[in-house]
Specification:
33% of the residues lie in helices and 24% in strands. The protein is an alpha/beta fold. Strand 1, helix 1 and strand 2 form a beta-alpha-beta unit.
Length: 212
């Protein structure tokens, strides 16, 4: 059995869970970050994933940040690059859909200019995840929102520490870096075929055309 299919410990065992219907800012929704804390929120899209990351950084101090997204807007990379110059972000990792290679070529190049040539992993991706790891905190953020805000129902989760954070770090550590990525390589790195039988994926054959 794949180790990831085994149930993982949710340590810290007793999380202090808050559930919030938030009409406020990311900082007000998240509240005070403490070891083992957990927040679940329903929002009206008044803050984005990037707003939540910035709110967490206000509490953690200098940290390493990773972002999982399917596309990135220029404003968001500019914000993170500025934070890098301010030494609030020690390191950055972008896990992004392969389609961004064309759609966001300039933006991804700016990210690599700020965080290094190996700071991008191309996959097939629709996950919206972020991590913020400092000397004291290991914060995992996930939700339905993209990096930009969107005025409609969104859901948001934040946890500090635990097996969920460890799992994301494990997967990130296994994603290969490509000097010259292709669509086939990004698909293989995502291991989508490991979750399906060949006949289940057959219906998608011919739908996606990888292009450079």
């Amino acid at each position: 059995m794949d180790e990831r299919t085994k149930q993982r410990s949710a340590a810290p065992a007793a999380r202090r869970l808050r559930a919030v219907e938030s009409f406020q800012s990311a900082a007000e929704c998240i509240g005070t970050i403490e070891p083992g804390c957990a927040v679940f929120a329903i929002t009206r899209g008044q803050f984005s994933m990037i707003d939540a990351v910035l709110a967490v950084l206000d509490q953690t101090g200098p940290a390493s940040v990773s972002l999982w997204t399917w596309t990135v807007a220029e404003y968001e990379v500019e914000v993170l690059a500025r934070l890098r110059r301010d030494e609030r972000i020690r390191a950055g990792l972008l896990v992004i859909d392969y389609g961004a290679l064309v759609k966001n070529a300039g933006i991804v190049a700016d990210w690599r200019g700020s965080f290094g040539d190996r700071s991008v992993r191309y996959v097939v991706n629709h996950a919206k995840i972020a991590t913020v790891e400092s000397d004291r905190f290991r914060v995992l953020l996930r939700g339905s929102m993209n990096l930009n805000f969107n005025p409609r129902f969104e859901q948001f989760d934040l946890t500090e520490g635990g097996a969920d954070f460890d799992l994301i770090r494990e997967v990130e550590g296994e994603l290969p870096f490509f000097d010259d990525v292709t669509g086939e390589a990004a698909y293989s790195a995502s291991r989508v075929s490991a979750a399906f039988e060949p006949e289940q994926l057959a219906m998608f054959s011919g739908v996606r055309r990888w292009a450079r």
